[in-house]
Amino acid sequence: MSKLISATLITTALLFIPANNANMTIAGTCASQCGPRPLEFKPGQYLRLKIVNHTPRVVQMEKFPEMRRMFLHPGKEYTMDQANATVPNFSIIFWDDTGRSLKANVSKPNFGTLRVEIRPSSSFPGDRSIYILDSGKVRVF
User: Fold this and answer.
1) From residue 28, how far is each of 24, 32, 34, 38 by CA, in Å?
2) Which is nearest to 76 in space by CA: 116, 125, 106?
3) Could you tell me the CATH number of the domain that includes residue 88?
4) 65 assigned to some structural domain
5) Is 68 a member of any domain?
6) Would you give the DSSP letter of residue 40?
7) Is 127 inside a domain boundary?
8) Which pLDDT tens digits describe the chain residue by residue (141 residues)?
9) How many independent structural domains does the chain possess?
10) Nearest Cα to Cα of residue 130 among 92, 87, 99
11) For the chain, what is the radius of gyration of the CA atoms?
């Protein structure tokens, strides 16, 4: 008798639970919605950094920790070779003297090259630096 009551209770409960509950979350993989993998290099590897100015104005840059100021004219490319890119950490800070926002699009066209394309941006404040950590990870701030 108790088995019949238990079965009846379970059946009744299942009938009254809505099948299309909007608050239910189904676990799954992110195979199609993960976004791009983070850009990184093997720690200590040789790195060639290519920065391209796709803005109509001169972009100024400084490389830390050396504090070298560089000027990148519209349409020009600056190439920098780092024998050991990730030790120590280094960064490139860039800006437009007129205060306009910039966007840095980073890519890894081959094993040892980091390509940074600087473009105008409508979002404020925009991107202002590329940071390469000693772990090999690349960050845009």
Assistant:
1) 13, 11, 11, 21
2) 116
3) 2.60.40
4) yes
5) yes
6) B
7) yes
8) 555 556 666 666 555 555 555 454 555 566 556 666 778 888 878 889 999 999 999 999 998 877 778 999 999 999 988 766 556 788 899 999 888 999 999 999 998 899 999 999 988 889 999 998 888 889 999
9) 1
10) 92
11) 26
